[in-house]
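[job 4471] stage=fold_predict status=RUNNING
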Amino acid sequence: MKSEAEIKKEVQERYSSIATQDKAVNAASCCGATTPSNKIYNIMMDDYTQTEGYVEDADLGLGCGLPVQFAHIKEGDTVIDLGSGAGNDCFVARHETGITGKVIGIDFTPAMIQKARANAEQLGYNNVEFREGDIDDMPVNDNTADVIVSNCVLNLVPDKQKVIGEIFRVLKPGGHFSISDIVLVGELPESLKADAEMYAGCVAGAIQKEDYLGYIREAGFKEVTLQKEKPITIPEDILSKYLVQDEIEAFNNGGTGIFSVTVFAAKPGAKTVKPKIKLSDLQSDCCSPESGCC
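[job 4471] inference complete, writing structure tokens
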């Protein structure tokens, strides 16, 4: 088994390459890291193009949700984005905080930080900053953020509980998070779990859905709410790189589910908000190839 340091190094190297890839390549693969699929639909990402504050040059097509849409960001808030990439979610969050708020993006890939800072400078956003660092050891003081968001990043970190503990530490009392990520129901085949490309592709590093929600509760968060859930289908032409045909059929029919979930939770304290839930999102099965709506 690889060490945490080895896993982080592999992820960092792949995301350094992803920083210079075309968005279309990222959208046709798993988090931009796997071999692009020849299927004409986005495997994980949601469409940001109708979202206020969206900046096309900052959208690398790496997300699996729209966490800022559910995040209850208010004018003047301090917001932290974990795994900020080229800055897309930071700029959407900045639209919500206005000029009186502050947005901090954290990423451990220097190429992403450089790209995000260039985007912020071009936009003239003086209240958006990007800090290089690990999200399981954030370069942020205690009780700093009103809101934390993240889009398909926690699954890339070996120690999820440590990240969740850091989120709790950095949030102000009464602060909250809205985070989109990949979780599992059932076990992945060993050949998928052992592959570095599938780990960087936001699949092999995902944990069981109930464990994920359990870690959030154990950290001391309250109001843990599943705001959105959608199934993720990995196309056969990607699976065939790791599995033979019999294994692909067994995987597709074996009850294993890969899901993008957006989860809300609040740190105990004076400030509370009612989490947004869209029943239509919870009931959606949009991301199967057969549905034709992705």
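[job 4471] summary: The longest strand covers residues 171-185.
[job 4471] exit 0
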